[in-house]
Amino acid sequence: MTCWLLKTEPDSFSLDDLAARPGGIEPSDGVRNYQARSFLRDATHTGSAGS
Predict the structure, then answer these.
(1) SS3 category, 19
(2) Which residues contact 31 (CB under 8 A, 6 or more apart)?
(3) 47 phi, psi to nearest 5 deg
(4) Which residue would you say has higher pLDDT here, 47 or 18?
(5) Distance, CA of 22 to CA of 44 (rounded, Å)
(6) Domain ranges across the chain
(7) In which element (H, E) is residue 7 found?
(8) What predicted TM-score, i.e. pTM, was given to this entire model?
């Protein structure tokens, strides 16, 4: 099973901000590193949490 750790700066978007979102979901606003973006695009899918 592949796991991804996604990081943001706490003053930009914190864990409390995510917890306040309906369903604990927040869309991504992009990944600047092209290789990382490709890995995430190919390995993640909507609704794949916990599988």
Answers:
(1) helix
(2) 37, 40
(3) 80, 10
(4) 18
(5) 20
(6) 14-45
(7) none
(8) 0.46
Find how far residue 42's CA is from the centre of its chain: 13
Checking if the pLDDT of 49 tops 70, the result is no
Q: Name the average pLDDT for the chain.
A: 77
Determine what percent of the chain is predicted with pLDDT higher than 70. Answer: 76
Helix, strand, coil percentages in the chain from 3-state DSSP, rounded to 5: 35, 0, 65
Burial of 40 (0-12, 13-18, 19+ CB in 10 A): middle
Burial class (CB in 10 A: 0-12, 13-18, 19+), 31: middle
| Contacts of residue 44, Cβ cutoff 8 Å, sequence gap at least 6 | 4
